[in-house]
Amino acid sequence: MSAVDRAWLRMESVENPMMISGVLILDQPITLKRLKRVFNERFLCFRRFRQRVVQQGDKVFWQDDPLFDIDNHIHTIALPGKGTQQDLQQLVSDLNSTPLDFNRPLWQMHYIDRYDGGCALLIRIHHCIADGISLVRVLLSLTDPTPDAKVHHIVPIKEAARSRTLGLQQFARRVIDSGQTALEQGRLFMQSVAREPDYPIKLASAAGNIALDLVKLGLAPFEPRTGLKRALSGRKRVAWATPLSLAEVKLCARSLNGTVNDVLLSVVTAAVHRHFLATGEAIPPCGIRVAVPFNLRPLNKPIETLGNQFGLVLVTLPVEVTDPIMRFRQVQENMNRLKRSYQAQVTYSLLDLFGQGPDMLERRAMKLLSHKASAVLTNVPGPKEPVYLAGARLKQPMFWVPQSGDIGIGMSVLSYAGTVQFGITLDKSIQADPEALTGYFRESFAELLERATRHGSVTGKQDAG
Fold first, then answer.
1. How far apart are CA 274 and CA 260, in angstroms?
2. CATH value of 224-381+403-464 in 1.10.3720.10, 3.30.559.30, 1.10.10.10, 3.30.1490.180
3. pLDDT digit string (tens) for 48-59?
4. Which residue has the higher pLDDT, 218 or 239?
5. What residue spans define the domains of the chain?
């Protein structure tokens, strides 16, 4: 197991199981037989989903599960009551509070029949297998652009022979690859110097900036003690909002000369601002911070291998700002500053370093870093057109990444087929209502859109004058 993946494995705790979970709501029921064929064809082609984690002392590695059976991972379950969205959210909350079985490959799926005229799938995968962006792309690879796509039978993956000779061959190959990489890097460096004589100075400047970002990360103050930062219970509460129109989000961004990400982060900030107003709690005068995963894997290339390839950036949400336009400008400025930083690369390197060191050192370091954020916020782009899974149309997808340390809030934004999905997961000890927060998200967007279109029309008139 790579050092970074091992770092995420070690973050597993009773309070925060390290699971990435997703809910896929489909417009019609599907047969379990066809669903298993899809998983055999497109999911299990990644060998990692047939392997379990083995720990021997300080060593952690992947091992093919000799007793692997897909029936140990795909289960059928029914909703209690009338099968409403609240019932589904309660079920997701219960399962997301339950850790995966470490005696088997670390994933599980529940097929939920008779939900909203169709069905729903709840999928849980451990973070040590891959990062959220990769797993979302893997799960979406199970789908098709049309409902009548054929699923072909696959040949079961044979267990690779494990011999001493093979191990020596792999070691020799890594040594050769490392040497070739070093020579290639040296050649590229000399070419860069030939083209730009001041390239070494630029390289030294970049190294200085990386060191500066590392110092800034270490010296960042702890989060203020609010109802959003409490000792965790390990019980999760999950909710999601009615989707927004992506066209309206883009209109809002154009009116304010910003990006879609700027708009969505601003709306999340406003939702937290409304939460503080509703509860009567004092609003932190310097805002709060959220940890945002920053992808380091090319999105234009297919996923050939799993694993974690992302860093984390700490984004300040100016929840103390009351005016929607001023709040948007502050978020935009904060994001532009982070885009010019090396914080994502720094945190990825730290995870790699921690994963190679003692378990106690990593836990203390991650606990220290988790004190510097109140929530984790993910923003993942999904398909632009509707997709189909086993013949059924995907109506609404939702995904959540786990929280680490003492962070008890996870927020997720996902674009899909002209909509924007917003979901939240809270530890039960957090003094906030997930249903209320999803409502604040929609109300905050409506307010920003109204102000943005008015602001855009005024700016247009001024430009015309």
1. 21
2. 3.30.559.30
3. 999 999 988 778
4. 239
5. 3-140, 164-215, 224-381+403-464
